[in-house]
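re: the backbone from monday

yeah here it is again, tokenized this time
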């Protein structure tokens, strides 16, 4: 066995996990999608009091922090990522007083709180957008957004051929004939970040939540804010071409000047003790991710590479090595994600057969499975869950922070059987059903084996829960020592004790085995092969599935400590 080592950055080596200003570096962060977590007032939508009531559950998991997806007033055109007011709580899910009570309960339990911030676009019900619509062309109110005259002799064509992320044109026409830009749904008009009032207002919002005790921010579409909209506007083909260059020259995405915005934000974060943290949701080329994670900027950026990877030892090894090196260079720690509210759950992704139409992309495979039909991938749920458990245990042994999406600790599968008339995701509507969208990972959590809404609510659930949910409920899994919930609890609680500095040493075993050690004699071994393997010496502290005659079976991870 040969070992190779990653070098710790000086900052990382000096900082034990979980302390003061560096708590985030190796934190396990649990993502709550508030509307689907726990409903206490019977309106079928999860609420902040529901989260407060489940703080003991959150604490028992062994996580360090909670990240709340948007909870702001919203018409839910995009699940809350269409914000009416950045400094309030949606009355459907609570009040500011509920927020304070929830924040106090989390903090009392020793958990940090990260909130989602959505700066690329507001909702079309935001007071600024209403004012823009009521104001004339060229007015200061319109300048907070991106309005343009249309093309064609009478301006009846969109200004450009750009497509929105959820499908259709990226431009929407208003009553006086002008068009506004929306890179997502029409209900999400893009803000103009060249407008000083927009910049200042977000600084106020960051202070508003920081003053209320929020520990950090997850920044939505962090790579989209800065845009070069000088005339002539590029065509879609020109955008695509510059996108492939990854050099900051694209007019809409990942421009270098976006970091001027985050440098200002960092000054606000550093007004607090400990400084507020931030993590960028930036779908950029891996080579450019470090810019978002710079200590002078947001400080950390999501790395979605594992979420996009096949179940393959080579891919996992390459991704881990590359990301640890990148994180070291940027001064940040790495982030690891297998599931979130935008993708098919990993217990399902790992159980799908590959088909020609998925182009070797597991996320695409998930979408094809949701669509169904003769050529769709088929699902082996048991295989998917076995691999998901192994992948999670591997992820939790890595240096850096790990993001866990609500329900994955129960081993939940994606819900495929949502009738079209119950769907809520704009992806489904804007693509005219060509994509099913993201509702299947947003179905309200099952807390009890049976009963109305499986304990999510006394009345019902805003997305239909399938009958098999009961078997994955917290109640069912609490009493089962082999459950996925028990595995997450064991691993997360142990991780607290085991995480020290941010180094990892590779151990070269067979090609189908991913094996590394962490300081203090902690070792993680994953068998990606098809035959059981002999484990190295040491006590097995956690294992993602039962050992076979003392050997590590296929699709299984063990920690030895
Ligand atoms: C990324 C969020 O994760 C997703 O849910 C949302 O639809 C888009 N940003 C637009 O805000």
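seq for it, each position gets an aa:
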């Amino acid at each position: 066995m040969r070992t190779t080592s990653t070098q710790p950055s000086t900052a990382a080596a000096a900082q034990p996990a979980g302390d003061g200003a560096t708590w985030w570096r190796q934190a396990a962060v649990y993502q709550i999608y508030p509307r689907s977590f726990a409903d206490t007032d019977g309106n079928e939508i999860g609420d902040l009091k529901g989260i407060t009531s489940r703080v003991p559950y959150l604490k028992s998991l062994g996580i360090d922090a909670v990240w709340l997806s948007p909870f702001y007033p919203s018409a839910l055109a995009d699940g809350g990522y269409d914000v009416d007011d950045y400094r309030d709580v949606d009355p459907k899910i609570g009040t500011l007083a509920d927020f304070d009570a929830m924040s106090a309960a989390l903090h009392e339990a020793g958990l940090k709180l990260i909130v989602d911030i959505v700066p690329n676009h507001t909702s079309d019900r935001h007071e600024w957008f209403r004012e823009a619509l009521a104001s004339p062309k060229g007015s200061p109110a319109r300048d907070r957004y991106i309005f343009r005259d249309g093309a064609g002799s009478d301006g009846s064509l969109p200004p450009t051929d750009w497509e929105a992320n959820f499908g259709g044109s990226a431009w929407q026409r208003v009553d006086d004939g002008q068009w506004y830009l929306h890179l997502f749904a029409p209900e999400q008009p893009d803000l103009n970040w060249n407008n000083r009032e927009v910049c200042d207002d977000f600084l106020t919002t960051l202070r508003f939540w920081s003053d209320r005790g929020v520990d950090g921010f997850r920044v939505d579409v962090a790579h989209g804010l800065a845009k070069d909209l000088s005339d002539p506007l590029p065509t879609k083909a020109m955008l695509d071409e510059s996108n492939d260059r990854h050099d900051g020259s694209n007019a809409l995405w990942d421009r270098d000047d976006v970091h001027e915005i985050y440098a200002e934000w960092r000054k606000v974060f550093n007004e607090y003790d400990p400084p507020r943290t931030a993590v960028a949701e930036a779908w950029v080329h891996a080579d450019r991710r470090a810019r978002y994670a710079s200590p002078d900027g947001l400080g950390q950026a999501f790395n979605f590479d594992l979420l996009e990877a096949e179940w393959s030892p080579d891919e996992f090894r390459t991704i881990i090595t590359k990301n640890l090196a990148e994180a070291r260079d940027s001064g940040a720690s790495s982030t690891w994600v297998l599931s979130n509210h935008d993708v098919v759950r990993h217990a399902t992704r790992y159980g799908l057969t590959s088909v020609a139409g998925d182009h070797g992309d597991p996320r695409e495979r998930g979408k094809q499975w949701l669509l169904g039909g003769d050529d769709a991938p088929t699902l082996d749920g048991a295989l998917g869950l076995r691999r998901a458990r192994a992948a999670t245990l591997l992820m939790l042994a890595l240096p850096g922070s790990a993001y866990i999406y609500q329900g994955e600790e129960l081993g939940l599968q994606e819900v495929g059987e949502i009738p079209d008339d119950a769907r809520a995701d704009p992806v489904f509507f804007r693509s005219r059903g060509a994509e099913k969208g993201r509702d299947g990972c947003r179905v309200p959590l099952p807390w009890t084996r049976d009963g109305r809404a499986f304990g999510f609510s006394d009345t019902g659930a805003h997305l239909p829960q399938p009958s098999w949910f009961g078997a994955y409920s917290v109640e069912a899994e609490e009493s089962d020592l082999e459950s996925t919930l028990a595995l997450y609890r064991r691993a997360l609680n142990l991780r607290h004790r085991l995480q020290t500095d941010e180094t990892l040493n590779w151990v070269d075993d067979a090609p189908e085995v991913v094996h590394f050690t962490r300081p203090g004699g902690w070792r993680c071994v994953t068998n990606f092969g098809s035959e059981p393997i002999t484990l190295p010496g040491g006590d097995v502290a956690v294992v993602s599935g039962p050992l076979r005659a003392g050997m590590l079976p296929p699709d299984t991870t063990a920690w030895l400590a």
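The longest helix spans residues 313-330. Residues 269 and 322 are 28 Å apart (CA to CA).
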